[in-house]
């Protein structure tokens, strides 16, 4: 092919090569030299002349750059030594190269067996030292240990850490976080109203100052920092920019100015959830890849979390990633004015599909704090293989004092929030709707109905526990049966239970096998509606 | 040694905000980037820095107070000759710290890049 290109003084052959499409290239190999002469070279009479001294067989054997080791080396060398811009190598190859009569067939991908003729022509073509006697067994060809090929292989493998790929799954545990960041939410907010989003950002801000783990924390946002009230962090920790800040920002004189720097900590990825989540994965697996655990915290619109990047989330779980995912503006009735595509009523269904994702839908600041604290403890101190998904909202309300002894229940997914005398119904709520359950108590009291209220911080975890207990009992029929956590909570009576969440009904329905009393579920199935929060909640 | 009074800086969008936390004690030595108080609007919590280096001599606000831009909130004892460090100067200082061998100004242009 080289001498042919050398003959192409006027670039006419180059022009034909630049315009040929993949499908035709495949045809040339599939249909042979004569077809190639008539359909490629013949497009231009001068080019046809250039191959007049070649036979059809010669034309068929004209090689493609992708199979020429010299050309591959040259291209790679050029690419590696190019500066200032990314480089791309387009390597033309032949499908099923070397398989004789099977070359360039569309079915090459599905070929399960090659005929002995094909195998022999492969052997002949590439000078593989296997005799006709031996070839029936298709033996391995093993060059001697001192051959340059094997020596190169072993040396390169050594540089990569040895012959067997391995995963570092242990690491030096991080110290426990200072309780200060969490304890401040033990006391209620008084007459101050704030959202769980603000509470989360507060916790993150405090953790960044933690002497033990502060430098491991990395907040990641896909351009939504101001929506979540995180702009104070721009000045405090800086936005990472590999080239520093190349301009004077408009708000340079404000206390929350847009500061970028090379040692910025926050990752501002632009409106790309796949980019932001990829950055999260890199940090979330740093404990393994670099023996240096990092604590990435990715905040996003919950609707644009798993729904948008579930493929990556699944891979993250599979890679044993650890870190926090915060789904903000969550729940079907939270973002009433912004269009139905924001109304998330199913992110917790998605999260439940990932075996090592622990997902929570808290309502109060002390619940958020408890879960965060537990997350750092479990992932980085106890080194459990899991990552956390916590949904938060942007509704401002007052948060009560943390009740004594509720921490275990918050982590397991359920605890009693409000007692009642002789309750005729148990109201279970989560996220934005728990407060509606609390309001319902007063409404029901007008009808002389006493209602208890429970906070369900995670229906997903209640189900996981139920399934594990079920399985253990099934496999140990002679032992005393264990009782699922959620069943135990309600075991004192068969008072009917009504669960309400801002998610589709299947979210709360999933614990039905572990509930002995009457159980009713309210949820937000459907695409949502454009209306005020009040109307939406009344509708559902 | 002089006592300087620090006022609430330009908070941007918000007008009146509540003091929710006081992060230092009287007598504490602080740097210009250290947080003195935390304010909360209905969107976000804002940490207000000392903007000077020195020793806290008096805190002029309490938790629960509502403050606006320009209100004095801190008395700080500084060494004579300390300049107020504005944000613009700050970014310059930070770029200097970060960028060891390259040009240092607010608008940093690396030689040789496309």
Kindly state the number of beta strands of chain B: 8
Distance between the termini of chain B: 49 Å
What is Rg of chain B?
Answer: 17 Å
Overall SS class of chain A: alpha/beta
What would the principal axes of the Cα set say about the shape of chain A? Answer: elongated
* Beta fraction of chain B: 35-45%
Mean pLDDT of chain B: 76
Largest sheet of chain A: 6 strands, parallel
Provide the structure class of chain B. Answer: mainly beta
The residue ranges of chain B in which pLDDT falls below 50 over 5 or more consecutive positions are 88-114
Q: Largest interface, with Cβ-Cβ < 8 Å?
A: A-B, 34 and 32 residues
Notes on the structure:
The complex is a heterodimer of chains A (540) and B (114). Chain A has 540 residues and is α/β, with parallel strands linked by helices. Chain A contains 24 helices and 13 strands. In chain A, the strands form three sheets. Chain A has a six-stranded parallel beta sheet with strand order 4-1-5-6-8-7, with helices on both faces. Chain A has a five-stranded mixed beta sheet with strand order 9-11-10-12-13. In chain A, helix 3 (22-31) packs across helix 4 (33-39). Chain A starts with a helix and ends with a helix. The mean pLDDT of chain A is 93. The longest helix of chain B has 12 residues, at 87-98. In chain B, a hairpin with a 4-residue loop joins strand 4 (35-40) and strand 5. In chain B, strands 1-8-6-3 form a four-stranded antiparallel beta sheet, with no helix packed on it. Chain B has 114 residues and is mainly beta. Chain B has one helix at 87-98, and strands spanning 2-7, 17-22, 29-30, 35-40, 45-49, 54-59, 66-67, 72-78. Chain B is elongated and about 40 Å long.
